[in-house]
Amino acid sequence: MFHGLSGGTFNKDSLMLNRRVN
Description:
Blueprint: H1 8-21
């Protein structure tokens, strides 16, 4: 699980990765 709460670009990448993993 990626924590993308802090960080703008990291948050965006985290959402993309989360969708790919999901």
